[in-house]
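Hi there,

I know you've been waiting on this one. I reran it after we fixed the sequence typo, so this is the corrected version. Both the input and the resulting structure follow.
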Amino acid sequence: MVRRFKGKDGVEKIQLRLDLGLLQMNRCGRPDGKRPHDHESLLDHYQTQLARHVRSHEGSDDGYQLKADDCAQLQLEAIQYHHRYLCLFQLGDFAGVIRDTDRNLEVFDFLDCYAENDEITWGLQHLRPQLMMIRTRALGNQSLRAGRVNRAVKQIETGMEEIRQFIQDNELTDLADGCEEIESLQDWLKEVRSRRPLSKREKLERAMNEAVQREDYEQAAHLRDALRSLKVPAKRASAR
């Protein structure tokens, strides 16, 4: 469904096969290859406008505002990047996914700050949980690829917490108990944790629990003592 290739112009491209044909995008820069107002993207153009405004207003952004049409154009551009990072994820290009999801988060924040009214931006903001999930998966997969399972676990936990915080901050009560993105990450977290090599403490704890279950209390007591002995050096070290 997705392939990466180099075009006749020497530019690396991505093609996504759809029911009605092909969707083709550049792998870097703006997906459609255009340079609006001689910038890499509309976001860059508006950020340049903001910087000029701040310089001419003694370091303040007061009075800078994005009109409805500006917001609509930024939203359409963000959808291009949305399609591309989904394709990049399928290709296993996790660095590209992180680049494009970070970029779209920047758009969300920019619109949140400067759109002339909140209603204009919500059409895009509701995509934030899905974007955060994809970004978390890209970060986690990048760490797993490098053999850093513990780091991947922490990244997944952080991603879930960030989505929960977004739901809480925006009072999305309908998502609080059944967010598909959080549920998806929870399932993945269980899978990733199962790959993590156990520490000495975790091995002893597991063995002790198994001994208790088989009612081998002598072995359980021995393992309990071994667990306690692990804590002694840490206490002594902290005392020093």
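Quick highlight: The CA atoms of residues 34 and 216 lie 71 Å apart.

Best,
R. S.
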